[in-house]
Amino acid sequence: NYIGFLMLLMQRMVTSSTKAIGAAMARRLDVLQEPEEQLSLFPMLTEEEWADLDGQEQSDTVIQARFKALKNEREEVKLIIEATEAAANTHSDAKAEALLDWMYRLQREEQDPEIKVLIFTEFVSTQDMLRQFLIERGFSVVCLNGSMGLDERVSVQERFAQEDRVLISTDAGGEGLNLQFCHVVVNYDIPWNPMRLEQRIGRVDRIGQKHVVRALNFLLQDTVEYRIREVIEQKLAVIHEEFGIDKTG
Fold it and tell me: How far apart are CA 29 and CA 75, in angstroms?
């Protein structure tokens, strides 16, 4: 049901980054403070259509929804915003730090201090956080998301090919990319739809690829991401059984 999807979305944003849940709650508070009449939750969407959206699209839909606000929702949202601000000011992002450590290990393993890395996230706010985090630590970074026009997307792809080391993209931003000059893909957030994983890896696993493609899934222990992985593995097993294609290896 929609409440279940909503709870999963909130948990996914928390595991993605403090900034993702904080930014979503700030935008939700803005909507709650508008005097417009509340409408139904998730208008015009079936459950299947809702589940097929990526994380950012789900977040945008929920935030703008005009459903009847829960009692004390404004106060609860404000408390969450305060908690995210306190966390951001007092603690480093453990998931981002783990990514950084892995990237340093990757450089040593590949014996290439300039190795290129394609990072996928579900949320634009996490994209912004990672961009700043990596730039502050000496990495050259470019970003792609669904809000960019064709010319800007082409420019970013050219910069990644010629000079920048890291490309951080959402699924919408990564559509149509040909990045065979890069062979490392990091799924910083795990998508609900298993075919999105295939599409992400397919951005680099193309004709002209000269290396074995490396794909890494980032999962926080004891979080909803583990449940998402289980669901994805079950779906991929069905694909293997029905079509004889093994996508789990």
Answer: 9
Residue pair 5/50 in contact by the 8 Å Cβ criterion: yes
Query: Which is nearest to 129 in space by CA: 94, 101, 156?
Result: 94
What CA–CA distance (Å, rounded) separates 244 from 233? 15
Q: Which of 36-40, 163-167, 199-203 has the lowest mean pLDDT?
A: 36-40
CB neighbourhood size of 238 (10 A): 12
pLDDT of residue 74: 77
| Tokens, residue 34 | 């508008």
Ramachandran region of residue 208, left (φ > 0), alpha (ψ -120 to 50) or beta? Answer: left
Structural domains in the chain plus CATH codes: 2-89 (no CATH), 94-218 (3.40.50.300)
Strand 141-144's sheet: what is its strand order? 141-144, 166-169, 117-120, 184-187, 214-217
Q: What region, left, alpha or beta, does residue 152 occupy, with left being phi > 0 and alpha being psi -120 to 50 degrees?
A: alpha
